[in-house]
Each structure stands twice: as C-alpha cells, then as structure tokens.
Specification:
CATH superfamily of the largest domain: Carbonic anhydrase
Bound molecules: cobalt (II) ion
CATH class of the largest domain: Alpha Beta
Order of helices and strands: HHEHEHEHHHHHEE
Number of helices: 9
Shape: globular
Strand content: 5-15%
Largest sheet: 5 strands, mixed
Helix content: 40-55%
CATH topology of the largest domain: Beta-carbonic Anhydrase, Chain A
Low-confidence stretches: none
Number of strands: 5
C-alpha cells in the first residue's frame, strides 16, 4: 500500500475522532438528512475544494463539479443535480464558481487536441467566439486568459438561468438566487462577478419560458 493511500485512510479515522470529540452525535445527526442552502457548481480542479473555500461543514453544500464548471443544458448529470437541489432540497442559492488558471479554459484558448475532452472544451470555445472581439483586443495573454475565465462563469450563470428547472422554480415563486464567482488560486479569495439573478426578466426574450 502506498504511503499516500495509507495516509488518507488514517486521516479519515482521525477526522472521525475529532468530529466525535466535539459532538458524539455528529454523524447520527448528519445521517438524519440534509437541507443545504447552497448548490455549488465548480471546477474539478483539485485546488478549488468547495467546502473549504467557504468554510462550510458537511450538510451545508450540495456539490457538482466538472471540468471548467460548465452548465451544459443537455448534461444529464448536471440537470439531475440541479433538479434535485432545486426541487427536492429547495436550495436558496446556486453558485457557479470558476477559477483563474483553469486548465479547461486554457485548453479552449489553444488548438491542441487532448482527446475526448476536446468535445467538452468545444462548449468553452463557443464562449470565446461570443466574446472574440473583446478577448482578442487584450494583448497580454494572462489578462486575456483571466477575462475568458470570467466570461465563461458569466455565461454559465446565464445558461443556468435558461434551464427549465430554474425558470420553473422562479415561476412558482421559489426563492432561488444564482450567482457567479471566480476563485483566485494565488490569493484564496473569491470575487463575486456581479451576475446575480432571482428571476428571468434579464434573459433575452426568446429564452423566457411560460408555464
Ligand atoms: Co478549472
């Protein structure tokens, strides 16, 4: 058994001990059920751990992660997580959290074929095309990369707002706010990008569903 593998099993035992020291019923209480106020849609990147960043305990965040924190409206995995979070758990907030230095975004800026992931990255390339004029005008590559990360988060928040699940919730008067964040790998801080929705009125008319 590798040292790393042994270490993570040991870590688990220590973690259980620590939690039980604070409250002997810690896990019994968690086993009763969950009602997290937040759904987190983030990048799979190992440096962006949802709970740790926002100081959330088990039971406080429902999490979906994929490469480059994408909200792709034909992705059954994302739709199932979103549906369960909104309709069963009744989360109050959904945060799409991207991060500077995202490998998925970087790949979308380039031309190298990496494999099957090319098809996932394609969705991100489309976002480059939507904002090509503004992005191409940024000469500094790092600044252009950062801006692309931000554009991607904003677009995913819009895509979230366009889903039938979110629009149906708003139509029923459910209190549901969606937000876009970007996380700084260098600083640890998140920035709220100011794309906050709690209704569909800011969506282009063609996307507004009537129920
Ligand atoms: Co990433």
């Amino acid at each position: 058994m590798s040292n790393f593998y042994k270490k993570i099993l040991d870590n688990n035992k220590k973690w259980v001990d620590e939690k039980l020291k604070i409250s002997p019923d810690y896990f019994n209480n968690l086993a009763e059920g969950q009602s997290p106020p937040l759904l987190w849609i983030g990048c799979s990147d190992s440096r962006v751990p949802a709970n740790e960043i926002i100081g959330a305990e088990p039971g406080e965040v429902f999490v979906h992660r994929n490469i480059a924190n994408m909200v792709i409206h034909s992705d059954m995995n994302m739709l199932s997580v979103l549906d369960y979070a909104v309709n069963a758990l009744k989360v109050k907030h959904v945060i799409v959290c991207g991060h500077y230095g995202c490998g998925g975004i970087k790949a979308a800026m380039g031309n190298s074929s990496i494999g099957i992931i090319d098809n996932w990255i394609r969705h991100i390339k489309d976002i480059y095309r939507f904002h090509q004029k503004e992005l191409d005008a940024i000469e500094d590559e790092t600044l252009r990369f950062n801006k692309f990360v931000e554009f991607n988060v904003k677009e995913q928040v819009f895509d979230l707002a366009k889903t039938s699940i979110v629009q149906n919730a708003w139509n029923m008067g459910q209190d549901l706010q969606i937000h876009g964040w970007v996380y700084g790998l260098n600083s640890g801080y998140v920035t709220d990008l100011g794309v906050n929705f709690n209704c569909d009125k800011d969506l282009d008319d063609v996307y507004q569903l009537k129920f």
